[in-house]
C-alpha cells in the first residue's frame, strides 16, 4: 500500500509541475512576442524541466522496483512452496503463483473469472486453507494482471486460453511429477474449465465450477431483464432509462464492457444487500494491494477487466454448454450460490440434467451469491475436499 501512496504522490506532483511548466512556457512565449524577454524566466523554465525530469525518473524507478520485488508471502513449513514465477506457454510469457504447505500434495489449478480478470491475490486471501491440502496454482491468463502483455489484446481468443491452459497443465504435471491435476473455475473460468476437461480429460482428476456459466448470450439477456425489472420496481428511473437506451444484449463493438456493466454492477449491488448472503463482496482494494502485484500489474489489473473483457467476451455469445459439452469424461461438480443473479442457476440445473459424466452434482451454498468461494469460504473448502477426495 505504501508503494501506491508514493506513486500517487509522485503522480500528483508531476501533474502540478507539468502545469507550472506549461504556464512558464506560455509566459515565455508572450514575453518573446512582446519583446520583453526576462532572464529569470529561462532560469525558472530550467528548474521546472529539471524537476519534471526528476519526478518522472523517480516514478519510473518506483515502478521498476515494485515489479522486481513483487512476491507471494512465504509459507512456514518444511516442504512448502510459495513461488511467483513466469512461465512461457505457447510462446506467451505469463505469470503463475504456486502455494502449498507440502509440495508433494496434489496440484489444484484455479481458473479466474473475466476474461481479463486476475484473482491471484484474492484466492490467496480467501482460500488459504486449501494450501494445506493442495499445491494451489493461480494463473494470470493472457490479457490480465501480471500477464497483461502476454499477447496483443486483439490476438486473444477463447482458443488462446484453451491452448495456454493446456500448456500450463502439462507444465504442472511435469514439474510436480503428477499424471493429473484438479481444476476449479470461477465465472468465466468455469466455462474455460469445461473446455479443458472436455478436450483433455486424461489430464484432470475432476472439475469444480462455481458461478458457473452455461450460455453466454442467454445469460446476458436474463441478467438485463432482471436488472430492468428490479430497477422499475424500485423506481430507479435513471437506470431504467440507461438500460432501455442501451437496448437488450448481447452487445458488440468497443463499449461492451461499459454497456454490460450497467446491469452487472446493478445486480452485484443487489446481491450485496441481500441479508442472506454472508461476506457479500469482493475486497478489491485489499486484492489490488496484494504483494503479488507491482505498480504496473495494479494498473493492468484494471485494464484487463475493461479492455480484455471487452474484446473477448463478445466472442463467447455462441457458446452453450448444453449443446456443445453435453458429455464429459471426468467428474464435474457445480458450487452454486442460492442468491446468484449474475450466472443464472436455472441454466446450470438444465445442464446437469442432460450432462453425461462419470459423476456430477450440484452443491448449493445457501448464503452465497455469485462467489461462494468468498461468501462461504470455510464451507467452500470443506466441499472441495469432499468432492475431490471421491476421485
Keywords:
8-stranded mixed sheet; 8 strands; 391 residues
Could you explain how this protein is built, in words?
The protein is an alpha/beta fold and about 400 residues long. It has 14 helices and eight strands. Strands 1-2-4-3-5-6-7-8 form an eight-stranded mixed sheet, sandwiched between helices. The longest helix has about 30 residues, at about 1-35. The radius of gyration is 24 Å and the shape is globular. The model has no long low-confidence stretch (mean pLDDT about 95).
CATH topology of the largest domain: Rossmann fold
Total number of distinct structural domains: 2
Helix/sheet category: alpha/beta
Following the backbone from N to C, one meets helices and strands in this order, namely HHEEEHEHEHEHHHHHHEHEHH
Low-confidence stretches: none
Instruction: Count the E strands.
Output: 8
CATH architecture of the largest domain: 3-Layer(aba) Sandwich
Helix proportion: 40-55%
Instruction: Determine the CATH superfamily of the largest domain.
Output: Alpha/Beta hydrolase fold, catalytic domain
Instruction: Tell me, rounded to a whole number, the average pLDDT.
Output: 94
What strand order characterises the main sheet?
1-2-4-3-5-6-7-8
> Measured on Cα atoms, how large is the radius of gyration?
24 Å
Termini separation comes to: 42 Å
Report the β-strand fraction as a percent range. 5-15%
Summary of the model, kept short:
By secondary structure, the chain is an alpha/beta fold. It contains 14 helices and eight strands.
Amino acid at each position: 500500500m505504501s508503494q501506491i501512496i508514493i506513486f500517487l504522490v509522485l503522480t500528483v506532483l508531476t501533474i502540478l509541475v507539468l502545469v507550472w511548466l506549461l504556464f512558464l512556457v506560455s509566459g515565455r512565449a508572450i514575453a518573446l512576442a512582446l519583446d520583453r524577454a526576462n532572464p529569470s524566466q529561462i532560469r525558472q523554465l530550467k528548474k521546472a524541466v529539471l524537476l519534471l525530469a526528476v519526478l518522472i525518473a523517480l516514478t519510473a524507478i518506483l515502478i521498476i522496483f515494485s515489479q522486481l520485488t513483487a512476491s507471494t508471502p512465504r509459507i512456514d513449513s518444511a516442504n512448502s512452496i510459495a513461488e511467483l514465477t513466469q512461465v512461457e506457454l505457447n510462446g506467451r510469457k505469463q505469470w503463475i503463483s504456486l502455494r502449498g504447505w507440502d509440495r508433494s500434495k496434489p496440484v489444484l489449478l484455479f481458473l479466474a473469472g473475466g476474461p481479463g480478470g486476475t484473482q491471484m491475490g484474492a484466492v490467496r486471501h480467501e482460500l488459504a486453507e486449501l494450501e494445506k491440502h493442495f499445491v494451489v496454482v493461480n494463473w494470470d491468463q493472457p490479457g490480465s494482471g501480471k500477464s497483461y502483455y502476454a499477447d496483443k489484446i486483439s490476438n486473444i481468443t477463447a482458443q488462446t486460453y484453451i491452448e495456454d491452459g493446456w500448456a500450463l497443465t502439462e507444465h504442472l504435471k511435469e514439474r510436480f511429477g503428477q499424471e493429473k491435476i484438479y481444476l476449479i473455475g470461477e465465472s468465466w473460468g468455469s466455462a474455460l474449465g469445461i473446455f479443458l476437461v472436455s478436450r483433455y480429460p486424461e489430464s484432470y482428476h475432476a472439475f469444480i465450477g462455481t458461478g458457473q456459466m452455461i450460455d453466454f448470450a442467454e445469460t446476458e439477456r436474463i441478467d438485463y431483464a432482471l436488472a430492468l425489472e428490479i430497477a422499475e420496481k424500485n423506481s430507479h428511473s435513471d437506470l431504467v432509462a440507461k438500460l432501455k437506451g442501451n437496448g437488450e444484449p448481447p452487445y458488440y463493438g468497443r463499449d461492451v464492457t461499459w454497456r454490460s456493466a450497467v446491469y452487472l454492477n446493478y445486480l452485484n449491488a443487489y446481491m450485496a444487500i441481500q441479508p442472506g448472503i454472508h461476506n457479500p463482496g469482493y475486497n478489491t482494494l485489499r486484492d489490488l494491494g496484494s504483494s503479488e502485484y507491482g505498480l504496473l500489474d495494479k494498473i493492468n489489473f484494471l485494464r484487463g477487466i475493461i479492455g480484455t473483457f471487452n474484446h473477448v467476451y463478445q466472442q463467447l455469445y455462441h457458446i452453450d454448454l448444453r449443446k456443445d459439452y453435453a458429455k464429459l469424461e471426468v467428474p464435474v461438480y457445480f458450487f452454486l450460490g442460492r442468491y446468484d443473479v449474475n450466472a443464472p442457476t436455472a441454466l446450470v440445473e438444465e445442464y446437469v440434467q442432460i450432462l453425461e459424466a462419470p459423476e456430477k452434482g450440484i452443491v448449493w451454498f445457501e448464503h452465497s451469491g455469485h462467489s461462494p468461494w468468498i461468501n462461504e469460504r470455510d464451507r467452500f473448502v470443506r466441499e472441495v475436499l469432499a468432492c475431490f477426495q471421491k476421485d
